């Protein structure tokens, strides 16, 4: 307790549970009950067995089931509790601080549905300390609070930390980016699970769309962080659409991932938003090769597969004849590609801007190795911290916004007439940017998730006939 002086309690008092984001509860003080109890429903355990957590919803105002507060807490025990009517129930037990007036002290409280009770919380004798004097004939010896706090939007901005259940969709659990996302989330007290996208399967119907994984229905996640590889774009975005259908917050949506992954569609989106990019041309007919080259400008030119990643499938044609040969070869493979003006003044360098929730949080300059025109770090390029201009920052932010991406890696070139966006990556690697700049990009992403997400209720079990 913060105050060692004795203070009085009546048989009913007002209290707050700040750890749970409950600023006002009318409490019944009952010395006849051993354990304390808090009204809770949609109770769902989650997390590792070594550090179990529970999340639940509370209707804090009697008679107002439209007002719901979502809470989460560490589980300290499971205990059989016998109520005053003789019924025994196995309950989760959590630890929380309780506050009355200027006094705060820790208690243990069990979770049970008290929807039909006049008081949303019962304070048992285990929670009553030696400094307290209970006067059964008195009420509200401590300052009274007001339920009206729940009727304003301010309750959503209390800043109360809540453990979230988060899925990282990734086929590479040991990659730097996936490991960082797991480590950072767990450091913040969240439960982060890595889900192999290709092992998900879906039940698609109007009433109860579901996602299954290794034979079991996936639980409700508070948020999903997609790390969708190019080889599984189509199936991966279908899985994300299913998460969107059931109402899960997805850091990047299926539409933005699909548009950004297809190079042709991505450039059309950039053009629609009038974002600077190298002149680009595309054609399906082999008869249009020379016209295609002319539209993109004079050699040297870049010939790029529509679904190239990490610099693979990107060829520099230094002469018109070389461009014709490369185009002919790609068409012989029945590959979809585009032709792009080569920004010579970039001199084998590009800028990777990492955008999180509409802000550039890191920028690095990538320089190609040897005589390679490609600056990708996967191909041996080197990275240094970049100081970007206002125009470059605006181009990166507008590009991420054009695709609706809350996390994006925007690659741009420094041309004589301003920044030119090369690519918008919906699953940017974190290693190069974090190690080069020393910034905690994974942490900034979790800041966004925590700001935008409220823990979702557990699903109620379906009734069997």
UniProtKB/TrEMBL annotation:
The keyword ATP-binding applies. Residues 267-450 form the ATP-grasp domain. Coiled coil: none annotated. Its cofactor is Mg(2+); Mn(2+). One of its GO terms (molecular function) is ATP binding. GO terms for cellular component: cytoplasm. GO terms for biological process: SOS response; translation. Keywords: ATP-binding, Ligase, Magnesium, Manganese, Metal-binding, Nucleotide-binding, Protein biosynthesis, Transferase. InterPro entries: Asp_endopeptidase, ATP-grasp, ATP-grasp_RimK-type, ATP_grasp_subdomain_1, Peptidase_aspartic_dom_sf, Rimk_N, Rp_bS6_RimK/Lys_biosynth_LsyX. SUPFAM superfamilies: Acid proteases, Glutathione synthetase ATP-binding domain-like. This is Probable alpha-L-glutamate ligase.
